[in-house]
Protein 1
Amino acid sequence: MNSKKKMNIIDQLKKRSVKRFSLFFAISFVFLIISKLSNDYKQTIKLKVNLVGFEDEILLKNDSSNYIIAYVEAKGFALVPLMFKNSKVLQVNAKKDVTVKSNHFIFDVQKHKFLIESQLGNSYDLVSVLPDTLLISYSKRASKKVPITLKQTINYAVGYDLKGDFKFDTDSVKIVGAASEVNKINTITTEDLVLKDINSKINKSLKLDISDYQNIEIFPKSIMVSAEVARFTEGTVDIPLTITHQPNNVTINYFPKTVSISYYVDLENYNAVNASDFKVECDYAELEENQTYLVPKVVNKPDFVKHINIKQKRIDFIKL
């Protein structure tokens, strides 16, 4: 019995010794790794040059040679991530970091070592870089600016309407692509602005529609559209007629001498409407053979009124 107890005690001691040894071994290994990673090492890093800030017309060629090899010195800790991906991205500004030639950008690598150091960070000391100069090839596409046409399907609430005009945050957009395609385009249309029962200000972001064109890019790709919506009411006013282009040897008598005009105006400007702001004319030169009536047209009106309607569609006359 005593012999069995002794064997159990010995087994327990052996197990505890193995656990202690494993623990000490693991701790020693961790300290060894930390010690190694605390040392300085030298290594090469592949830097992919990412050119930014160039004109929309520029098309960079997908050149695998647009890389810089940087030889750096750093602590092991800083180099650990490079074990999984031995490359970084270097941002280069086309407006201030390169020289522009007819078909390529020239990046003076040696001159811009400070740029590389700043983007690598304080953990790395830059020892050397290759090549001394990097050529980034590009081609240039055709471009031009074109106006924007709004496509809209808007239903206003009863008694409300658009006050003034729609406004865009930019008056034109740039289209870029092959010259044969660019030359065909004279305007760019927005996606359809669909709104129902509108009684308040409109402020929407709309994409620009280039689905009918191939290999065309547009800048910007969307615009902000805004408009004032106000309560409107109807007004009427009587306006005297003016006959234009009547021959000197022709005398006519026409009836009526005045016409009644109805119009739509926002409440804020209702009292600002005056009859003198309108002008209605009948053009005698537009008469067809044997026609016995003139057609009245509004040729002047206040800018803020809309939906003009002349109640008398024809003016009868006789020659004297």
Protein 2
Amino acid sequence: MQDVERALRWGVCRARDLRAAGLSPDGIDRLVREGWLVREARGVYARPDADAELVHAARRHMVLTCLSACHAHGLWVWHRPHPPHVARSDSTRTPGVIIHRVRCVPRQPVAPVLDALVTAFRCAPPREAIAAAESAVKYGRITHDELLAAFTGQRDRRIRASIGRIRTGSASLPETLARLALEDAGFEVRMQVEIEGVGHVDGMVDGVAYEVDGRAFHSGPVEFEEDRRRWNALMALGIPSVRIPARWVLANPDAAITVVRRVLDGWRAS
């Protein structure tokens, strides 16, 4: 059954993939009768708990791409697209999806990471594409050079500039969004700065240390308490510091700009 599990990696697959995994037509029918599979369309099967967007695309023999595919791959996606973005070889209008026309549609239900990111940089707002790409590079799903090699045209200069902003120091989506917002506001941001007696901080802006704070993005209470120790150590060293709730950043990354500016203005005034 390992081959069948691989065929159902995404929770949906074609009948041909199940047959290639060793299941006969009778075997497929048996899994349907027993409730292990659901026949979603002719030649399309899914697990009962399969992601709804994947099923929606598979029923129409389409493949998730752009940020929809990035989300399926587990990359950092700020806003999951709705309706889902799909790849197909023609531009026939199909309700309930955003179509990206491609020459060759992948066989799998989800476009490969590189293909999905290439589409995202051409489709999504820059911050969204950069965040997804940053997580892909950070976790070794693609390399920075592989991504750059996909954009060699003169019209791709802005995209290449966006790719140039990818860093691997962020530990979470909110950290990346906060950094991008601060950079867009003209601040020079140093990431993951090591301070003696404190440890590392998420970033430094003009002598102000900032941390994107949120328990959802830490491992547990011990790590959360360590964050507080570092906060107190910064105060003892006289280094102005800012705690930016991750929830604020996810709702509006520009909130980080307002908080940092207020601290900088107060520090300079004193």
